[in-house]
Design a protein that fits this description.
With 209 residues, the chain is of the alpha/beta class. It has helices spanning 17-31, 37-41, 48-55, 65-84, 93-104, 118-125, 148-157, 171-180, and strands at 4-7, 108-112, 133-135, 164-168, 183-187, 198-200. A six-stranded parallel sheet has the order 3-2-1-4-5-6, covered by helices on one side. The model has no long low-confidence stretch (mean pLDDT 96). The chain binds 1,6-di-O-phosphono-beta-D-glucopyranose (B16) and magnesium ion. GO terms for molecular function: beta-phosphoglucomutase activity; magnesium ion binding.
């Protein structure tokens, strides 16, 4: 049915949200803003600057664009320190095994991630070799739930959206897939989104859709 599969990165192929959390927490602590795991949940699949806006929701001092950019860059420096420590051992065996089998079955595989660090994470973890196309936060005009990141991935694979399946963990990502005319496979939070095509309890169930 499908010829291509487009994977979200954070929350699907790897778990970097605890690094995002710790990096944002340092920023929030400096500004003396309340930031907890529940709020961190809202940052899933959302771009860096939009994440900052969510963190600054209850901040009473107005910040200039330059100050916001400086905060986002500072957060990214902390985040990259965590990413530096990543290796193949941060990826579940089931993820490698499933990607191997999907390649044997001749699917085209792409990344559709909001992250500007996607290339770096893929290199560090040894995942990069599986992908025919990488569509990430670099050069992206509109982030999820806009379908742009997935449409660009499908385009790079030279496939129509109907021929691709999007695998996502975040509500914003499932909505982006729907908006772009893609079928979707939800993992984790992604399973609870209305309109999701398949609900996966485990990553390897992807081999059964
Ligand atoms: P960066 P995904 C997303 O990755 C994360 O889920 C989200 O929490 C993060 O804010 C976003 O990437 C931007 O990341 O700061 O590295 O550009 O789930 O779309 O793979
Ligand atoms: Mg995600």
């Amino acid at each position: 049915k499908y010829m291509g599969i487009i994977f979200d990165l954070d929350g699907v192929l790897c778990i970097t949200d605890r690094y995002h959390y710790q990096a944002w927490k340092r920023i929030a602590d400096t500004l003396k803003i309340e930031f907890n795991e529940a709020k961190n949940h809202r940052l899933r699949g959302v771009s860096r600057m939009e994440s900052l806006d969510i963190i600054l929701e209850n901040y009473d001092k107005p910040l200039s664009v330059e100050e916001k950019i400086a905060l986002a860059e500072e957060k990214n420096r902390y985040y990259r320190e965590f990413l530096e420590t990543m290796s193949e051992s941060d990826i579940e065996d089931a993820v490698f095994a499933t990607l191997d089998e999907l390649r044997v079955r001749r699917y085209l595989l792409a990344i559709g991630s909001s992250s500007k660090n996607a290339g770096f994470i893929l290199e560090k973890t040894g995942l990069i070799k599986y992908f025919d196309a990488i569509s990430d936060g670099n050069g992206l005009n509109k982030s999820k739930p806009d379908p742009e990141v997935f449409l660009r991935a499908a385009d790079d694979l030279r496939l129509a959206p109907e021929k691709c399946l999007v695998v996502e963990d975040a509500a914003a990502g499932i909505m982006a897939a729907l908006a772009g005319g893609f079928d979707s496979a939800g993992i984790g939070d992604g399973t609870a989104v209305p309109g999701v095509t398949y609900r996966l309890e485990r990553f390897e169930e992807l081999l059964e859709v």
